[in-house]
Design brief:
single chain, mainly alpha, two-stranded antiparallel ribbon, 2 strands
Length: 390
């Protein structure tokens, strides 16, 4: 088979990976905004594509360097890169079968590490640093969420309610010579401010998704020098955008229904926290899963909100005289939040469940199973099947 045909197959595999990334990441980034009626699905997909490109073009280059050149000591040949991409795609397929957002970054690292183990070129220092951050990131997300839930969220929940009124958000005043944009006839300042915040955080999430996920779709081809970094980023962005405009339409409707049923304000806090963690680690060149930070921030946010009736020391030690419920984030904003140490109104602690423990367990298990399976399959393949250039 000629190198041209192999490259074509590799690009098709990259597009498949990027397409599926777009389907899942767009739902995660824009599902709350679409569900609240703030943006349309088409606008969400368009914004997602643009900011994914920005994230991949800037911060994503650091992750690209790690995946393409630091995990193993030799460049990934074109033939090996195509095989690695198929293992990444297989990992996505498994995650889709189980119905959870795929840990693409972890699957990618596992596939490349399998190649390194099989060829004796694995950089254990780099892998150790990456895995260490995979362990630390959930802890960071949990404690940031816990602090927000315990000390900040209740006050924000009382004062900041994002609602949509009838009519256009922005209208055009045509009384003058040149039409000028003005606030819609029914739009409140709080609604306008809330909408702006939602849009900013959605774009930030898309940027973070691009920084962490664009390299996953194309790094094996970049390592082989079959295509340049700039061209690879364009290919990945187009593929992610197609996924955003097609299969993501359903995920934008359903995202979060299994994991959590929290209000838009809580979702925005979670998204901003997860995007910051992911962007920071991507800047440091660490391939990281955006979903990992989101899941544990949600758990931490609920834990912090629910443990307000007791002292921080007792909450951390698990020493409490009250039963800690997990439904605190769905509390009625009209119910005032008590001070730290004061008992919660009963209505606050009995409104639904914050998260489904079985769903959390499934997410966490995929963080372990995904990279482990991709590493094992990749290792076995490259041991049994000799690939040119490895």
């Amino acid at each position: 088979m000629s190198l041209g045909v192999i490259l074509l197959v590799g690009i098709v595999a990259s597009v498949f990976v990027g397409f599926n990334i777009g389907g899942s990441s767009t739902g995660i980034a824009w599902g709350p905004s679409v569900g609240a009626g703030i943006v349309s699905k088409a606008l969400a997909a368009g914004l997602m594509t643009f900011f994914v490109f920005l994230g991949g073009w800037t911060v994503g280059r650091n992750v690209m360097d790690t995946l393409a050149g630091d995990i193993i000591a030799i460049p990934i040949s074109l033939e090996a890169g195509v095989a690695v991409l198929f293992f990444i795609g297989f990992g996505i397929l498994i995650a889709n079968v189980f119905g959870v957002p795929v840990p693409t970054s972890m699957t990618t690292v596992g596939s490349i590490a399998g190649l390194g183990l099989a060829t004796g070129t694995l950089n254990f220092d780099t892998i150790g640093r990456i895995v260490a951050w995979w362990i630390v990131t959930p802890v960071i997300g949990f404690w940031i969420g816990g602090i927000l839930g315990r000390y900040l969220y209740p006050a924000l929940n009382e004062r900041f309610d994002i609602v949509s009124t009838d009519g256009a958000l922005i209208a055009l005043d045509r009384t003058g010579t040149v039409p000028t944009p003005v606030i819609g006839p029914n739009t409140t300042r709080n609604e306008l401010l809330g909408t702006i915040v939602v849009l900013i955080i959605g774009c930030y999430m898309a940027f973070s998704a691009g920084a962490s996920n664009v390299p996953n779709a194309v790094a094996p081809l970049v390592s082989s020098a079959a295509i340049g970094t700039n061209s690879a980023i364009f290919i990945a962005t187009v593929a992610i955008g197609i996924g955003g405009f097609t299969i993501a339409r359903r995920t934008m409707e359903s995202v979060g229904t299994e994991l959590t049923d929290i209000p838009l304000l809580a979702a925005l806090l979670v998204m901003a926290t997860a995007a910051t963690i992911t962007t920071t680690l991507s800047y440091a060149g660490i391939p990281i899963s955006l979903v990992m930070a989101m899941v544990m921030t949600i758990v931490g946010l609920g834990w912090g909100r629910a443990t307000r009736p007791i002292s921080a020391r007792d909450a951390v030690r698990g020493e409490a005289d009250v039963e800690i419920e997990t439904g605190a984030l769905t509390a009625d904003p009209d119910v005032p939040a008590p001070d730290i140490g004061e008992p919660e109104p009963q209505e606050v602690l009995e409104v639904g469940d914050l998260f489904n423990p079985l769903a959390i367990a499934k997410y966490v298990s995929m963080w372990i199973v995904g990279p482990t399976v991709s590493l094992a399959l990749s290792y076995g393949f490259f041991v049994v099947v000799p690939v040119p250039g490895t």
